[in-house]
């Protein structure tokens, strides 16, 4: 196996971002991790004290980074939350998500330790049975007023009634003025929020684009670690191109209302090209003819789209969250999708891609944080801003000068 390690150095070499690129045609990342973590030939482990801690699962060879130096040892907070998650404690899940959302330096390290433990458990389960994927991540987006919360309420109750445990990560937009968020999605799901087999977590975007939060990936992993086999991510109802949630889920569903007012919406690529399923909601009463018409329009539009999968062509279905019509058929279609994707190996490929996107999202966030906190940049910024305001230099040139100032140290 060829392993490439690339380091990006910032500040005085104290901040490093590491990209691990595994290039192997015959061995998937999941099987590779299984070999590294569970193989009997791996003999070298790190034993910390009397307890077998997380670092006992890390190989000591050139392919791995010594995480002890970066994160330190586990503490009672991490061990307590991990134990609570393994016991399917909802209060522990709530505290764990709050932990990963924190920007406090110590809590960020605790969050990474907790996530590594959960990810290791999840990877072991996936590698043990790739053909029988136990968890299912569903992304849901759509325009405001499409009925996303009402649909999740009806769909979630159907799933819990059939023995599933459902976690709903509802994302609300944050105010660009005050930074606050209403977090009101849970109030629109009164029955599901009282269901013992469901967990609803509203979170603010915090200015993050794409309809998701900065820590949505972390919340998904923690929810799965707490025993929830179905995770639904409801976005804020963004525009036609901002679908970051598609890189976090196994299937991305676009929920639309009938009689949206623009018959050409079904042809616009930004909406449809990332959707694996288009769901026409509110197909009841007087809106049934309109729902049928919009369904036909989207079916026609999808014929001109390039599919993301080799084995699956996006489907268009009609449902009613009010009467529950079409919801059992929708779940059957989703199960068929999961079966096809598992058998073809695309399910695992998407999970691997999600991990890579997750890593690079963190790199981008950290680079921006380091750039903004740099003393040289901070000293130069006011004068350059004034020059931009006066029209003496362009914003692009000012950005280049700031970047050059930042890179002088490296």
Structure write-up:
The protein has 410 residues and is α/β, with parallel strands linked by helices. Helices cover 45% and strands 14% of the residues. It is built from 14 helices and nine strands. The protein has helices at residues 29-38, 67-71, 76-86, 90-101, 105-128, 148-161, 190-193, 216-225, 269-272, 288-302, 327-344, 346-373, 375-390, 395-407, and strands at residues 2-10, 15-23, 136-141, 166-172, 198-204, 230-234, 251-256, 277-280, 315-318. A seven-stranded parallel sheet has the order 5-4-6-3-7-8-9, sandwiched between helices. The chain has a two-stranded antiparallel sheet with strand order 1-2. Helix 4 (90-101) packs antiparallel against helix 8 (216-225). The longest helix is centred in the C-terminal third of the chain and has 28 residues, at 346-373. The chain is globular and about 65 Å long.
């Amino acid at each position: 196996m060829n392993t490439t390690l690339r380091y990006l150095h910032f500040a005085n070499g104290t901040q490093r971002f590491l990209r691990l690129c595994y290039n192997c045609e015959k061995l998937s990342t999941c099987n590779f991790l299984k070999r590294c973590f569970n193989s009997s030939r791996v003999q070298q482990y790190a034993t910390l004290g009397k307890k077998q801690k997380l670092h006992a699962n890390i190989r000591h060879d050139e392919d791995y980074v010594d995480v002890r130096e970066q994160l330190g040892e586990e503490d009672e907070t991490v061990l307590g939350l991990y134990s609570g998650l393994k016991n399917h404690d909802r209060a522990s899940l709530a505290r764990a998500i709050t932990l990963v959302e924190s920007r406090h330096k110590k809590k960020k390290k605790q969050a990474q330790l907790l996530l590594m433990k959960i990810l290791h458990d999840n990877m072991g389960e996936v590698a043990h049975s790739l053909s029988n994927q136990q968890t299912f991540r569903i992304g849901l987006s759509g325009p405001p007023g499409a009925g996303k919360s009402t649909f999740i309420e009806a769909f979630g109750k159907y799933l819990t009634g059939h023995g599933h445990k459902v976690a709903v990560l509802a994302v609300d937009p944050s105010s660009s003025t005050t930074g606050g968020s209403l977090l009101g999605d849970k109030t629109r799901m009164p029955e599901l929020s009282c269901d013992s087999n469901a967990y609803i977590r509203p979170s603010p975007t915090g200015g993050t684009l794409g309809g998701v939060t900065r820590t949505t990936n972390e919340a998904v992993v923690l929810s799965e670690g707490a025993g929830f086999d179905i995770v639904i991510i409801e976005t804020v109802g963004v525009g036609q191109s901002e679908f970051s949630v598609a890189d976090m889920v196994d299937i991305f569903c676009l929920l639309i209302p009938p009689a949206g007012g623009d018959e050409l919406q079904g042809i616009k690529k930004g909406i449809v090209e990332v959707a694996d399923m288009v769901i026409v909601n509110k197909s009841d009463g007087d809106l049934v003819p309109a729902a049928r018409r919009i369904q036909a329009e989207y079916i026609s539009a999808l014929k001109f789209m390039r599919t993301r999968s080799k084995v699956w062509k996006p489907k268009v279905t009609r449902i009613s969250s009010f009467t529950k019509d079409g919801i059992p058929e929708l779940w059957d279609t989703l199960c068929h999708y999961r079966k096809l994707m598992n058998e073809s190996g695309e399910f695992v490929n998407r999970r691997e891609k999600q991990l890579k996107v997750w890593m690079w999202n963190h790199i981008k966030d950290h680079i921006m944080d380091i750039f903004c906190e740099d003393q040289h940049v901070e000293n130069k910024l006011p004068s350059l801003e004034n020059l931009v305001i006066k029209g003496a230099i362009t914003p692009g040139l000012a950005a280049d000068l700031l970047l050059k100032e930042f890179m002088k140290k490296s």
